Amino acid sequence: MTLTSYIFGIVSALLILAVVVELLRRRHLRERHAIWWFVAGLLALIAGVFPDTLVWASHLVGVEVPINLVFFVSIAILFLVCLQHSSELTQLESKTRTLAERVALLELAQKERETSE
Predict the structure, then answer these.
(1) Is the pLDDT of residue 105 over 90?
(2) What is the pLDDT of residue 53?
(3) Domain spans of the chain?
(4) Which ranges constitute the DSSP H helices of 1-117?
(5) CA gap 35, 31 in Å, rounded
(6) Neighbour count for residue 13 (Cβ, 10 Å)
(7) Which of 30, 44, 61, 100 is surrounded by the most beta carbons within 10 Å?
(8) 16, 44 contact by CB (below 8 A)
(9) Confidence of residue 116 (pLDDT cuts 50, 70, 90)
(10) Residue 80 predicted with pLDDT over 80
C-alpha cells in the first residue's frame, strides 16, 4: 500500500463520517437512517488506519482477495439500507391509506350533514 492510497483511504472515511454527522446536525438525516452509514464509515476508517485488519478479516472468513471482502461488506450494508427503507415505505403507505380513508369518511359525514340541514 502506498502512502498516497493510505492517506486517501483515511481521508475518505473521515469525509464520510463528517458528512453523516453534518446531515444529522442539520436534521437532514434521522438517527435511525444514519446507523448503517456510521457503520460503513467506521469500518472504512478502521480499514484505512489499520489495513492489516482487512487482510486478517479476509483470512478469517476465507476470502482470498481482501478487496472482495470490502465489496461484499459494502453490498451487505447497501442491502440493509434498502431493506430498512422498504420497511419504512411500507409503514408509510399503510398510514397514508388509513389517513385517506379517514378523510373520505369525514367528507362523507360532512356532506350528509350539509344535505340534512
Answers:
(1) yes
(2) 92
(3) 50-115
(4) 3-25, 31-49, 51-61, 66-116
(5) 6
(6) 20
(7) 44
(8) yes
(9) confident
(10) yes
Q: Cell 453490498 identifies what position? A: 75
- Render the burial of 23-62: b for 16+ CB within 10 Å, e for the rest: ebeeeebeeebeebbeebbebbbebbeeeeebeebbeeee
Rounded to 5 degrees, φ, ψ at 64 are: -70, -45
Q: Residue 117 corresponds to which cell in the numbers above?
A: 340541514
pLDDT at 2 (0 to 100): 85
C-alpha grid cell, residue 47: 480499514
Mean pLDDT of 53-72: 93
Instruction: Kindly compute the dihedral angle of the four CA atoms of residues 61, 62, 66, 70, in this order, to the nearest 10 degrees.
Output: -40
The residue behind cell 438517527 is 31
The length of the chain, given as a count of residues: 117
